[in-house]
Amino acid sequence: MVVDTPVIQTESLTKSYGSRVAVNRLSLTVEAKQVHGFLGPNGAGKTTTIKMLVGLLRPDSGSLKILGMNAAGDKPKIRERIGYMPELPKFPKHLTGEELLDVYGRMYNIPRETRKQRIPELLKMVGLAERGKDRIGKYSKGMQQRIGIAQALINDPELVILDEPSIGLDPVGMVEVRDMVKGIVKGGQTVFFSSHLLAEVQQVCDHVTIINNGNMLFTGTLEEVSQKAGPNRRLVIEVQKPSDAILQALKALPFATVDSSNSTYTLTLKTKDDVRADVSRAVSGAGGVILRMEEQGGGLEDAFMNLVGKEAQ
After folding, report:
1. Is the pLDDT of residue 1 over 50?
2. Is 0.85 surpassed by the pTM of this model?
3. 41 shares its domain with 127
4. 30-56 CB burial, b ≥16 within 10 A, e <16
5. What is the pLDDT of residue 206?
C-alpha cells in the first residue's frame, strides 16, 4: 500500500505526569520509507512519545495521526499496521523463538499457513534461523533484541517503531541491528526508532528529530542537522616527520587554526567545504609526507551537544 500522507504526524502533542511535562507540544512529521531517528538524553521524553504513538498512553492534548488516521488512544485498526519493539523487551523464557512468533502471529489473526511461511523467513532475517527451536531463556541479550525485532515484523507492518534497538549490544550486534533496519526500509516500510547512540543513528538514518526535557530542538535531514554543529569540525593529520615548515604552511591556511603535538597536527576548520586537497598541497609543498588524514566532529554528535547544551543554558 502506498501512503501519500505522512506516516506519523503530531501537532502540539503533550503529555504530563503530575506537574512534570514529559512531552511538550511536540510537532513531528515522518514521511514514508524514511529511517527516522528520535534522539535525546535519558529522560528527554522519547519513550513517552513512543508509547503515545503505539496507543499505550493517551495524550493530554494535541493531535496524533498514524498513516493518516487519528491515533490518539487505543486504536486496534492502526495497531494492526504497526510493528513495535519496546526498550529491553522481556519475553516468556519458556517459549522458543518459533513459539513466540507464532503467539504474536495469532494475536494479529495471521492465518496458520501464512505464519508457517513467515516465521522461518523472519528468523533467517534476524540471524536466528538455527536457534528458532531454542527456548528464549537460553538466548543472549543480543539474540533477545533480534527476536524482538522479528516479533515487530510478524504482521508485515507499514510502520516499524523501535525503542533503543541497539541498547546493551556489543559492536557486532550493533552492526547486525543496523543492517536489519536498512533491510526493513528496502522492503518499503518506514522505521522510526529512538536511540542515544549517535554514531549508530548517523550511519543508518536519513532524518532525525532531537528532543530534550520534552521539547523538540530540531527535526530534519542529517545534512540539515550538521549545519547546527557549530565550529567543531576538525581535520587531524599525521605526518612522517614533523617540521616547522609544515606547521607554518598549515598556519598560513585561511580556513583553519592549527594545534600541533609531535607528528600530529589538528586543524579546527572555519569552513564546511572539503579542504583536504588544499591541506595535502600545503603539507607536500613544505616537504612533508602525510601518513594519515582523518576528519572529526561537525556531525550529528557535535550538533546534538550544541543543541542540548544551548537549551541547558
Report:
1. no
2. no
3. yes
4. bbbbbbbbbbbeeebbbbbbbbbbbbe
5. 87
Q: What is the length of the chain? A: 313
Give the integer Cα–Cα distance in Å for 100 and 110. Answer: 14
Q: Are 20 and 142 contained in the same domain?
A: yes
Q: Which residue type occupies 287?
A: G
What is the edge-to-edge ordering of all strands in the sheet holding 290-296? 256-261, 264-269, 234-239, 290-296
- Residue after which a domain boundary falls, among 225, 252, 270: 225
Average model confidence (pLDDT) for the chain? 88
Decide if 261 contacts 188 (C-beta within 8 A).
Answer: no
What range does the domain containing 196 cover?
8-225
Got the DSSP string for 87-121? Answer: SS----TTSBHHHHHHHHHHHTT--HHHHHHHHHH
What residue type is 118 in one-letter code?
R
Q: Using an 8 Å Cβ cutoff, are 55 and 74 in contact?
A: yes
Nearest-Å Rg of the Cα atoms of the chain is 24
Taking only the tens place, the pLDDT of each residue in 128-166 is 999 999 999 999 888 898 999 999 999 999 999 999 888
